[in-house]
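Weekly modeling sync, notes
Attendees: AB, CL, MP (scribe)

Item 1: holo prediction request
CL wants a bound-state model with S-adenosylmethionine before deciding which constructs to order. AB pointed out that an apo prediction alone won't tell us much about the pocket. Agreed to run with the ligand included and paste results into these notes for async review.

Input as submitted:
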Amino acid sequence: MVSTARRNTGVDGVDGGVGLTALLVAAARAIETHRHDSLARDVYAEHFVRAAPACAAWPVRIEDVADGDANPLWGRFARYFGLRTRVLDDFLRHAVQAEGVRQVVLLGAGLDTRAFRLDWPRDCVCYEIDRHGVLAFKHEVLDGVSARPRAARVPIPIDLRDDWVGALLDAGFDTGAPSAWLAEGLLFYLPRAVETYLIDTIDGLSTGGSALAYEVKLERDLLAYRDSPLYTSTKHQIGIDLLDLFDGEPRPDSAGDLAGRGWSTTVHTPFDFTRRHGRGPLPEENDALAGNRWVFADKPRP
Ligand SMILES: C[S@@+](CC[C@H](N)C(=O)[O-])C[C@H]1O[C@@H](n2cnc3c(N)ncnc32)[C@H](O)[C@@H]1O
């Protein structure tokens, strides 16, 4: 299969490369959790940050940040992740509560703790796919705080360039039953052929009544906003060069592809949800979030 950019996968765990971005999201969720007006709560997030030497000096509360909400990374960008977490929590809640889905697949799950913190129906299964080193770190931390999953949780330590479909089927995924899929903060790290394969595969594994949510970036975002406060602060404050980690190839039109396969799709900017919830990031000049789109897709029942 096509390779993920080598720079992304040089480090298997959370100490560097794309794995470190999972800790960035965890730190943002910790900050969000401690806000008085939090959009989403994740009590495990700060434990990941505290356990990883790579981010020993990172904040877990906005009060720990000298310039507070004016800080582009720990203010606006962290709030963005908080909003994204809430919106995708709601997507999964809807899939299980209103649509009766009982199997959930988190692609590039990273330090997502939804299996531990959302109210799942008793018979729900949550599959988490990420690379071995990331999941090993996650388990070490969660075991350390005696976290108990609230759904049947099935971690699948595998690279999405390898035979993850075989691993998912071996783990018990049922292609005859509706499923909910999430690719949160993942696709822009993958080459276009891998994204195309992923979407094609999800379609093939999804029966009617299934749902998918994912995040993409419009192509022009990558270079047009290279000097934006979000990218430069993330690089200079914590050493993560997102533009170096993102795949630079032209992006496929996955939403259009899904629509062509009969899925019903809606595409939102994050700002749509900021307005809906009354808090979160709003557009600004030279905005690295300008090209972010959150896509929701439903496969009609026969
Ligand atoms: C920004 S993090 C997002 C994690 C999680 N979805 C969240 O929102 O908290 C990106 C995740 O994608 C995973 N990832 C990137 N490329 C991958 C690949 N080729 N195979 C499996 N996982 C991958 C990384 O290990 C990392 O955990």
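Recorded for review: The chain has one domain: 6-298.
Action items: CL to compare against the apo run; MP to circulate these notes.
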